[in-house]
């Protein structure tokens, strides 16, 4: 991957100095590019895409609020889809790109690439991603779902729940959202909700995951693991587990953790078992920047629970399942992409500083 593309993508929204939510590092990068006479690239970077955003509605006091035109992606957005949900997007070139969970009309779960100018109106490719992979054992398809996407160093990495004799964490990467390369599965089955951190920690790649079972898993804790090469994983550490109320059955990491001065903001899903089944809500915690298995704050109330028709009615009622969050170029506004009722994709918004403060003010460890 060329330095040019690397620089451009870093500038486009995922760039922080250690422990600070600002863009000083990017400023530095910009100056460096200028001095290296790669001004064309800098000019390109300045074509910032519109940020998907809507202000908090009047009278609403929630720290996270929903987009008034939700859902943004209906279940039938492409001819083959039964449902499109639990999907991940990132800033890309002068717009956005993403990897979408599409369950087709045979009810096969697979991943599709998609593109958008504004982060709200999406064109999803009609056919699933075909992965380039040298090893037929790994390339063999069972199912793929619940992707996360993150820019690390020089490319976009994708993690997802991959069928390999049961669910485990599949991994791959792309430079351009056209050609996708599949890597080794990160862990043994059974595991779900593999979420990479956006930078190395102590010189190692880092991932959150949720060991599980073959079925609808009535348990689940979040663990942290490290790797020198994104293939061999170890140094496994317990992060946190379920606790009473809305997160009493199981929990799992959601979007890629967001680096803030207070620590890594981890949005996650928590599940309670009701008479009618599971209810999936979204919660928030802040993890230590250097030792992310140490939980510094954990918000006691949920941040969002299914209350709207597109969260309560669908193939699986009562599901809010966040898989991506993008911070605006100023590091202030956050847009969260989540699946509604295992059927559609929806948006929610928050101010990062308010959200961090809310998690702190309402924290119980
Ligand atoms: C989990 C996963 C998610 C899904 C959720 C609610 O186990 O299968 O894809 O959104 O259940 O059904």
The SSE string, one letter per element, is: HHHEEEEEEHEEEEEEEEEEEEEHEEEH
Mean pLDDT: 90
Could you give the order of strands across the largest sheet?
6-10-9-8-7
Strand residues, percent: 35-45%
Concise summary:
With 365 residues, this protein is mainly β. Helices cover 13% and strands 41% of the residues.
Give a quick set of tags describing it.
single chain; 365 residues; mainly beta; five-stranded antiparallel beta sheet; 6 helices; 22 strands; globular; disordered N terminus; binds beta-D-mannopyranose
Structure, described:
The protein has 365 residues and is mainly β. The protein is built from 6 helices and 22 strands. The strands form 5 sheets. A 5-stranded mixed β-sheet has the order 6-10-9-8-7. Beta-D-mannopyranose binds next to strand 7.
List the helices and strands and how they pair.
Blueprint: H1 3-11, H2 24-35, H3 39-45, E1 65-66, E2 81-92, E3 95-104, E4 109-116, E5 122-124, E6 131-132, H4 136-139, E7 144-152, E8 155-163, E9 167-174, E10 180-182, E11 191-196, E12 205-211, E13 222-227, E14 234-240, E15 250-253, E16 258-260, E17 263-274, E18 277-287, E19 295-298, H5 309-312, E20 320-327, E21 333-340, E22 344-351, H6 352-361
Helix pairs in contact: 1-3
Beta-D-mannopyranose is lined by residues 86, 145-146, 216, 280, 316, 319, 321, 339, 342.
